[in-house]
Write a structure and sequence with these properties.
It contains six helices and 26 strands. The chain is an alpha+beta fold. The protein has a domain of 222 residues: Purple Acid Phosphatase, chain A, domain 2. The structure holds fe (ii) ion. Keywords: Glycoprotein, Hydrolase, Signal.
């Protein structure tokens, strides 16, 4: 190549580079979650092909994103190999950044990325102040989501008419650990994590998603050379606020406060006996809860302790975890336990030690998000603690109106419409907890959904 040709080549290369779109490696799979225990920060996660730098710009004015934060840690990839395939999956570069110093009840705008491209501008609204019982807190509850048209119907229904402050997903997210239905061996097709990330971005780039691990997140697939590290993808792709709750487990078990509620996220698929770290952490976490600040305590895990469906009945993670932990939850008067795993909705009356008990906990199974395994049809005769059950896909809506009154509705997917099928008020008093409904209208609490424009009625207690 002559000197002149070389210069011409360089000039052409520069011109081509200048013509490349700015978003040549823009973020994908963007989602957010609460970043601490106080409700003052929000973590955003995203994936790039090759861009290693990363930051988030945010602010209350979409035209002037005047705050910024660099990514929390160096962007990284993980490798995954299953027993049954020679192919090694390598993830994209995973980024996490934390937007701190946020005010409650405030709409923020943000975009994430780096020098090789940024995302579109997303927005979210922060939850009410910690401890507030003067305005309702709205939480969408789902489980066993998967990535089917039913999954999307569920997400569409949540977004359409319920402005939840957060969505809680009680395990079994992408179903990446089994490539095809009825496949005898689990291939762990990690690309399904990427398709799931793209499916949920339109929802959870705008609303915090809080997750816990289910059996489909374990992903340990047999002898070497398979990847031996359990929960590898789940641990890599999220940054839940574990450190602020004193958990050093990554995303495996942790807690967070939001408005008037203390939320606890447990792991059914790691040790839970009294001498195990998860139990000891839970005991300490419950001991530290200040009920004058967070009058509601909501515990969540994947495998249900109470359920009358014939599917997944009396599995070890259900019976042994209940045997280990139920007394502790009862001692601290935990209000709700949400679980999934069984792909059907079921609400239990306040229950303790296998009997209805006003000092017990309201158990709700919400493993009906819409995954490809289908609804779990078939029941045992209905136990006295089982209040309502139905094997149809859908989602739950929990509204905490004040320190004593919660309203829970379950919405099933019927012909693409969210139809209210269970409707109950959970009311606490000195004598215990009772379920009232569906005719009870909340007394002089106004039943309002749409937290950006409406406010609750007077406080009852
Ligand atoms: Fe499950």
């Amino acid at each position: 190549m002559t000197g002149r040709t070389c210069l011409a080549f360089v000039a052409l290369a520069v011109a081509l580079a200048a013509a490349l779109p700015l978003d040549q490696d823009a973020p994908t799979q963007v989602h957010i979650n609460l970043g601490d225990n106080e409700g003052t920060s929000m973590v955003v996660s995203w994936i790039t092909n090759a861009a290693t730098d990363g930051y988030v710009q945010f602010g209350t004015d979409p035209d002037h994103l005047d705050s910024s934060a660099d990514q929390m840690e160096k962007a990284y990839r993980y490798n995954f190999r299953s027993t049954y395939s020679p192919e090694v999956y390598t993830s994209g570069l995973i980024h996490h950044a934390n937007m701190t110093g946020l005010e409650p009840n405030t709409q923020y705008f943000y975009r994430c990325g780096g020098k090789q491209g940024t995302s579109t501008t997303f927005n979210f609204t922060t939850p009410p102040p910690l401890g507030s019982v003067e305005e309702p807190l709205y939480i969408a509850m789902i489980g066993d989501l998967g990535q089917t048209t039913d999954s999307i119907s569920t997400l569409d229904h949540i977004r359409a008419d319920f402005e939840a402050h957060i969505t809680v997903l009680v395990g079994d997210l992408s179903y990446a650990d089994s490539a095809e239905q009825n496949e005898p061996t689990r291939n762990c097709t990690q690309k399904r994590w990427d398709s799931w990330g793209q499916i949920v971005e339109p929802y959870f780039a705008y609303q915090p998603l809080m997750v816990l691990p289910g059996n489909h997140e374990v992903e340990q697939v047999g002898p070497l050379p398979a990847t031996q590290e359990q929960f590898l993808a789940y641990q890599s792709r999220f940054r839940m606020p574990s450190p602020s709750s004193g958990s050093n487990s990554g995303n495996l078990y942790y807690s967070f406060n939001i408005g008037p509620a203390h939320y606890i996220m447990l792991n059914s698929y790691m040790d839970f006996n009294h001498s195990d770290p998860q139990y000891m952490w839970l005991e300490e976490d419950l001991r530290k809860v200040d009920r004058t600040v967070t009058p509601w305590v909501v515990c969540n895990m994947h495998a249900p302790w109470y359920n009358s469906d014939v599917h997944h009945h009396d599995e070890y993670e259900e019976t042994a975890m209940r045997a280990s932990m139920e007394d502790l939850l009862h001692q601290y008067r935990v209000d709700f336990v949400f679980s999934g795993h069984v792909h059907a909705y079921e609400r239990m009356y306040p229950t303790y030690n296998n009997k209805t008990d006003p000092t017990g906990t309201t158990y709700i199974n919400i493993g009906d998000g819409g995954n490809r395994e289908g609804p779990a049809e078939g029941y045992f005769p209905q136990p006295e603690w089982s209040a309502y059950r139905e094997p149809v896909f859908g989602h739950g809506r929990l509204a905490l109106f004040n320190a004593t009154h919660a309203h829970f509705t379950w919405h099933k997917n019927v012909d693409s419409e969210p139809v209210v099928s269970d409707d109950v008020w959970v009311i606490k008093s000195e004598s215990g907890t009772r379920h009232v409904g569906p005719k009870f209208d909340g007394g002089h609490i106004k039943r309002q959904y749409g937290h950006k424009t409406e406010r609750a009625g007077p406080i009852l207690a």
